[in-house]
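BUG-176 | component: ligand-complex export | severity: low

The export step for adenosine-5'-triphosphate jobs runs without errors, but we want the raw record kept on the ticket for reference. Input record follows.
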Amino acid sequence: MTGGAGAALATANAEPVMRGSGPAAVYVLRLSALDLRPLPTAVPCARLHARQVIREWGFPAIAADCELITAEIVTNAITHGTTPSGSADLPPVRLRLSGRTGGVQIEVWDGSEEMPRLRSDPLGEEPGGRGLVLVAAIATRWGAYRTRGGGKCVWAVIGAMAEHPLLPEAGGDGGS
Ligand SMILES: Nc1ncnc2c1ncn2[C@@H]1O[C@H](COP(=O)(O)OP(=O)(O)OP(=O)(O)O)[C@@H](O)[C@H]1O
Ligand SMILES: [Mg+2]
């Protein structure tokens, strides 16, 4: 597929690989990565990408949920995770989808160290703060962690693979 305006595309569908060793090793069946310019056009681009890739991988039952969660997390990355500027040097927002038996993991990197905050009163009068509530309600697990080179990754697992998500090695301070 091709990227929309403002989207720098780098898609890779990798061969199956093993991560870790021993009985708890995670078998990654599919990988797809997409770099996006941190512009509003990134959201529909990411959404369409997730829909097509996840259907192609054979997860039609969770495709709509994956699409929705991808859109929420990428929207947050664009809105809260990047500095508004016309600069072409902005770090990209990175989307990675991993498909394994039973489910899909969505990971979105952005350049900000600021962490997502789940609203404690989602039914309150204040506007906003519903996106992560939705993510938390739909995802099997979700969280966020700071990455070594700066920025952070917000991730969510959709489907029945909660016991083996591709978590950071250590130091994650996720939402669940
Ligand atoms: N990628 C991110 N980088 C920095 N802060 C984030 C990020 N994602 C979320 N946040 C913080 O977490 C809060 C809650 O996010 P959430 O998506 O629930 O609400 P929102 O984006 O403010 O509004 P809504 O999604 O309802 O339009 C945000 O207001 C923001 O402060
Ligand atoms: Mg949001």
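Assignee comment: Attached the raw record above. The first strand starts at residue 17 and ends at 19.
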